[in-house]
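Appendix B, Record 12. Input sequence as logged:
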Amino acid sequence: MRLYPASATARTRTATRDLVIVALLIVFAWTGMKVHDGILELTSVGRSIQDSGRAISATTRNTASAVDGAFADAGSAVNGIPLVGEQLGGTLRQAPAGATSALRSTGDEQGGRIVRLGVEQVEKTETASNWAGWLVFGLPSLVLLVWFLPGRVRLVRAMHTAHRTLTDAPEHILAARAAYNLDYATLRRYTKDPFGDLAAGRHAALIKALRAESGLP
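Logged structural output:
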């Protein structure tokens, strides 16, 4: 099955058109990737939100640890007081336990909520970037191919049908078809006297014209 006409001019014209279509598809794909990557950069916002949530959790834990440490130091400082020092030290060390535990819990809860919000933002941005990229590539590509492919398929089918039809057909019938169906300007490109050739049985130029205009060698 032939994909391109045998005539150099027609073959060049068809190949150039094919290359233009391929180039346009590449441009559409490149544009889609750029749109995808541009939107994907917005995921940095979601990651910053996640970092903020982790920072809140870490800050509250560090604060709680600092408070526990301060009371532990105070408890150690009073341990040497006679009679009540050890008991007072233990009390001081245990004093902030409830508050610092609640502080850690609250910080982890709030930080985790913010981290989840950041994760959701990243996922939504990634989904949006994928959809936008495919749409920017897919829609114009679909329109282009719907416009281009039917004609290209018709050309290939026409050449295939012509090849099957013209092969082994009687020369005088082919010459007559060329003389009666091709326009005058086309006939004159192959012979100066198409009807005289037909009447005289000189079929070569007419058959050449018919095959060439059908895209065949």
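The two ends are 13 Å apart (CA to CA).
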